[in-house]
Amino acid sequence: MNELPIFFDRQGQPITMTEFERLHSVGAAERERNLRVAKTIIGPLFVSTVWLGIDYGLGMGPPLIFETMVFPVNRNEASVLHPELAEWLEAVWRYPTEGLALAGHDKVCVDLRVLQSNIEMSEQVEREAIAHEQRKRHNDRP
Question: Does position 130 have pLDDT exceeding 80, yes or no?
Answer without folding.
Answer: no
